[in-house]
């Protein structure tokens, strides 16, 4: 196989793996936005916090990110639950833009608190056993990306199963489809909303722990990840978990290819162009239901 | 014989495979008050929505004043001279009662000042004059219904579509409304097509009644004829009585 | 005279005499306040009047700024002529965005995301446009600060103050006029209930487009001012989403859809933010991000407890009716 083709294949593969982690991040948003209808404008900021938490746990306690996943996710579950129950729930009935603004405000506070606490310098996590890449024929697979992607897939699978088979998961889906109907049959909708937000946040936290293995973390990453999450959710299709993962992979690959054929800094231009096109011509995304 | 002001011909509408309106034809003569009645789900509001331009019929035509209006947008239908009220009233909650009507009056006025004058007059006619500076959100339901009518009247329609405007009103309020419509009809020649469940005003006002059931027109005629029609009694009036 | 009119008169007198009363630093803060009062007013036309949430207004500031700046540096076209090109460019852009949004039925959150996407796309795009300076920036020549050259907008802070004051006052008057016009009524109707508005003969598409085009055109002027005041333009800064959010903070905190809301919001935010920065510096600390946290907390509190903004709450205490949220005046 020629060097060029192998090069492109490696890039695409790296894009797929990174995309799966993006997809997990978007999955959290899909669950939150799709069920609770909260436009979580602080999504990226929350993930950035998870990334910092992972870094801190690593530097202070030498805790491997793959293990840190558990406490960080648990912590975020609680945080998300409280956020929805305490702050956002009263806004469910208010006009859309006030709820939007609430989360914009939250995002601003979070980003700048991070900036105040950690400063603008980049941090990352270096794991020795991830340094060696895996060779598969002509392909060179980055170990860190591979493991992160596997964790992302495992988490996503757990979510699929939960929403499809668990009683609680089904109850949540019922609320998403029909708020009033859910109330009528006796579901404690507000509690389920809080639960959903908690689950979405936990999902996000796992994505953050894994993302640390792929990029360096700075406080200002938040907004771009928020936008990325929305692009993926809309492209993949609101309400579709598979769509979130598919969208993530699509974006991951397009970013990788854009970086190769144009300049790396232009890669997000492509994502935004895609968002605009999807909003115009296929608002339900690739796998979503028609609104 | 001159063409009716409103002429609905062979109109059909389905939603996701469910037939809401099936080959309905009727006319409304200039200067008449006509009622469209029928059980819930009969297709009455769907007909209204098609006349008002909210959506187009799957087949059939609707003519108003001789011209086809079935492909027009709602605002174009209003410009053509049809005003409508909504079954679930839609006031501009954050605006005052007067401002609500001004929005309607602007349709046929050169400017805000002219619209204002016309609006005050209409509010008086509907006994809402005193409440003109109140926010629409603070109004009771009967007042909101009257506001809805006032607003539609402000657009100076030739045909007024009233969608269950009497529901939830007390007998005295019903009588007030009936009086207003009768006056508008007799003195100003306003043509009215109304959907109603409350039979009192229907019998008091209508010159002609059309009965819908499961999307089909099952009877037409004067109130006396319709009330005695066995098919109608079967499906609808039998349970209520008059 | 009514209480409102008296307050207004005092306010106007203070504004006119300000340069004589304060030093250059305070004056520059005042310019900033007026700038945000202006852009807030312009944004308000789209959101407060027509109900369309735009979170990408930095697009118009940037395009307006770059258009006028490029014409000045490359073709020596003065700002007063450049303004027309800038407005045209932004109005076209706004029209395109409006058309796409309204024809394709994009509204609410999706519309907001669309506006963000456009701004971000442009930000990154401009980074690669070398003719406009790319990421390195576009610079306007500053020769002398002592001579006031109004034709070329080169001059002292005092000159810029009066220019911005005139712009802000004109925007205020324009919006007051708009609110009372047919368009003003129609916009409020559309905002309250679009379906009912249509049933009353309002071509909602046309009026929503009008709001978008007016809003974008007005914002273009802010961009032109920005270019000639700061004399340097960087895509990273001027198109950044933080700029868009700064623009909306004033109107939301002050009071959506009202006339004084954006002004009050701009005053409160700028004065208090500046106060905090000073305080932090006085304590010998250097904490980046404090100002933004303050903005965020204020926004949070307002959204939670005073969702209509601060101005309507204050106005009712003072016995004044806030103009703009749908009141017809006698």
If you had to describe this structure to a student in words, what would you say it looks like?
The complex is a heterotrimer of chains A (291), B (242) and C (330). Chain A has 291 residues and is mainly alpha-helical. In chain A, 74% of the residues lie in helices and 2% in strands. Chain A has eleven helices and two strands; from the N terminus they run H-H-H-H-E-E-H-H-H-H-H-H-H. Chain B has 242 residues and is of the alpha/beta class. Chain B is 39% helix and 24% strand. Chain B has helices at 44-52, 74-80, 97-105, 112-125, 141-154, 171-188, 199-205, 223-228, 230-240, and strands at 6-15, 18-28, 33-37, 59-64, 67-68, 82-84, 159-163, 191-195, 208-213, 216-221. In chain B, strand 7, helix 6 and strand 8 form a beta-alpha-beta unit. The model of chain B has no long low-confidence stretch (mean pLDDT 90). Chain C has 330 residues and is mainly α. Chain C has helices at 3-21, 24-49, 58-75, 79-103, 108-127, 157-180, 182-192, 194-199, 204-230, 235-238, 241-254, 261-282, 290-305, 310-318; strands spanning 138-139, 232-233. Classes of the chains: A mainly alpha (291), B alpha/beta (242), C mainly alpha (330). At the B-C interface, helix 2, helix 3 and helix 5 of B face helix 7 and helix 8 of C.
Low-confidence stretches of chain A: none
What is the H/E string of chain A? HHHHEEHHHHHHH
Fourth-level CATH superfamily of the largest domain in chain B: P-loop containing nucleotide triphosphate hydrolases
Can you tell me the CATH topology of chain A?
Answer: ABC transporter involved in vitamin B12 uptake, BtuC
CATH class of the largest domain in chain B: Alpha Beta
Helix content of chain B: 25-40%
Roughly how many Å apart are the termini of chain A? 46 Å
Which regions of chain B contain 5 or more consecutive residues with pLDDT less than 50?
Answer: none
CATH architecture label of the largest domain in chain B:
3-Layer(aba) Sandwich
Q: If strands are numbered along the chain, what order do they take across the biggest sheet of chain B?
A: 6-7-8-3-9-10
* Main pleated-sheet profile of chain B: 6 strands, mixed
CATH class of chain A: Mainly Alpha
CATH topology of the largest domain in chain B, by name, is Rossmann fold
Order of secondary-structure elements of chain B: EEEHEEHEHHHEHEHEEHH
Which of globular, elongated, flat, extended, rod-shaped describes the shape of chain B?
globular
SSE class of chain A: mainly alpha
Output mean pLDDT of chain A. 85
């Amino acid at each position: 196989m020629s060097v060029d083709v192998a090069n492109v294949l490696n890039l695409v593969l790296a894009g797929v793996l990174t995309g799966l982690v993006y997809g997990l991040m978007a999955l959290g948003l899909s669950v939150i936005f799709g069920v609770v209808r909260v436009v979580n404008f602080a999504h990226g900021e929350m993930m950035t916090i998870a990334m910092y938490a992972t870094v801190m746990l690593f530097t202070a306690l030498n805790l491997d990110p793959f293990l840190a996943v558990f406490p960080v996710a648990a912590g975020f579950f609680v945080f998300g639950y409280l956020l929805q129950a305490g702050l956002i729930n009263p806004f469910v009935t208010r006009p859309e833009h006030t709820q939007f603004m609430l989360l914009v405000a939250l995002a601003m506070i979070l980003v700048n608190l991070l900036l105040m606490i950690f400063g603008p310098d980049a941090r990352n996590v270096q794991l020795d056993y991830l340094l060696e890449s895996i060779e598969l024929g002509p392909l060179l697979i980055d170990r860190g990306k591979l493991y992160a992607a596997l964790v992302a897939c495992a988490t996503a699978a757990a979510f699929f199963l939960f929403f499809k088979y668990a009683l609680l998961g089904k109850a949540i889906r019922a609320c998403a489809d029909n708020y009033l109907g859910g109330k009528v049959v006796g579901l404690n909708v507000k509690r389920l909303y809080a639960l959903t937000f908690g689950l979405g946040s936990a999902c996000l936290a796992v994505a953050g722990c894994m993302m640390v293995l792929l990029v360096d973390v700075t406080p200002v990453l938040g907004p771009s990840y928020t936008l990325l999450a929305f692009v993926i959710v809309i492209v993949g299709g609101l309400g579709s978990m598979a769509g979130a993962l598919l969208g993530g992979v699509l974006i991951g690959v397009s970013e990788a290819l854009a970086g190769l054929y144009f300049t790396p800094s232009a890669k997000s231009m492509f994502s935004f162009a895609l968002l605009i096109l999807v909003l115009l011509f296929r608002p339900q995304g690739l796998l979503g239901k028609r609104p | 014989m001159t063409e009716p002001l409103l002429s609905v011909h062979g109109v059909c509408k389905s939603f996701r495979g469910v037939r809401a309106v099936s080959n309905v034809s009727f006319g409304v003569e200039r200067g008449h008050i006509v009622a469209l009645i029928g059980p819930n789900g009969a297709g009455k509001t769907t007909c209204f929505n098609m006349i008002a331009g909210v959506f187009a019929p799957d087949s059939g035509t609707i003519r108003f004043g001789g011209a086809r209006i079935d492909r027009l947008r709602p605002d174009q239908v209003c410009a053509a001279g049809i005003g409508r009220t909504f079954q679930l009233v839609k006031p501009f909650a954050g605006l005052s009662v007067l401002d609500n009507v001004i929005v309607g009056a602007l349709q046929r006025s050169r400017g805000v000042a002219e619209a204002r004058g016309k609006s005050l007059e209409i509010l008086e006619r509907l006994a809402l004059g005193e409440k003109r500076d109140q926010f629409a959100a603070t109004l009771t339901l009967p007042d909101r219904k009257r506001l809805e009518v006032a607003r539609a009247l402000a657009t100076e329609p030739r045909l007024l579509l009233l969608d269950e405007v009497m529901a939830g009103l007390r007998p005295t309020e019903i009588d007030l409304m009936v009086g207003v419509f009768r006056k508008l009809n007799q003195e100003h020649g306003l043509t009215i097509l109304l959907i109603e469940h409350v039979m009192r005003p229907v019998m008091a006002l209508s010159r002609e009644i059309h009965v819908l059931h499961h999307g089909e027109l099952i009877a037409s005629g004067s109130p006396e004829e319709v009330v005695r029609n066995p098919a109608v009694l079967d499906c609808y009036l039998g349970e209520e009585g008059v | 005279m009514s209480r409102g009119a008296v307050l207004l008169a005092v306010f106007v007198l203070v504004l006119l005499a300000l340069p004589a009363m304060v030093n250059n630093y305070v004056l520059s803060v005042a310019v900033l306040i007026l700038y945000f009062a202006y852009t807030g007013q312009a944004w308000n036309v789209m959101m407060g009047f027509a109900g369309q949430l735009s979170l990408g207004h930095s697009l118009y500031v940037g395009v307006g700024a770059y258009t006028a700046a490029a014409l000045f540096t490359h073709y020596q076209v003065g700002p007063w002529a450049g303004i027309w090109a800038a407005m045209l460019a932004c109005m076209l852009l706004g029209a395109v965005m409006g058309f796409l949004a309204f024809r394709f039925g994009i509204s609410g959150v999706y519309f907001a995301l669309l506006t963000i996407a456009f701004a971000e796309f442009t930000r990154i795009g401009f980074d690669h446009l070398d003719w406009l300076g790319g990421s390195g920036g576009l610079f306007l020549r500053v020769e002398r600060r002592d001579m006031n050259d109004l034709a070329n907008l080169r001059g002292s802070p005092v000159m810029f103050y009066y220019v911005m004051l005139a712009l802000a006052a004109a925007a205020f008057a324009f919006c007051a006029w708009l609110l009372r016009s047919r368009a003003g009524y129609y916009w409020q109707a559309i905002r309250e209930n679009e379906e009912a508005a249509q049933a009353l003969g309002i071509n909602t598409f046309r009026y929503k487009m009008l709001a978008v085009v007016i809003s974008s055109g007005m914002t273009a002027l802010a961009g032109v001012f920005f270019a000639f005041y700061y004399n340097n333009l960087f895509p990273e800064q001027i198109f950044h989403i933080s700029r868009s959010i700064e623009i909306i903070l004033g109107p939301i905190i002050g009071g959506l859809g009202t006339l004084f809301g954006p002004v009050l919001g701009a005053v409160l935010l700028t004065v208090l933010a500046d106060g905090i920065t000073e305080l932090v510096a006085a304590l010998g600390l250097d904490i980046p991000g404090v100002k933004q946290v303050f903005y965020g907390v204020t926004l949070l509190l307002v959204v939670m407890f005073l969702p209509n903004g601060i101005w309507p709450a204050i106005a009712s205490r003072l016995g004044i009716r806030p103009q703009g949220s749908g009141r017809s005046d006698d």
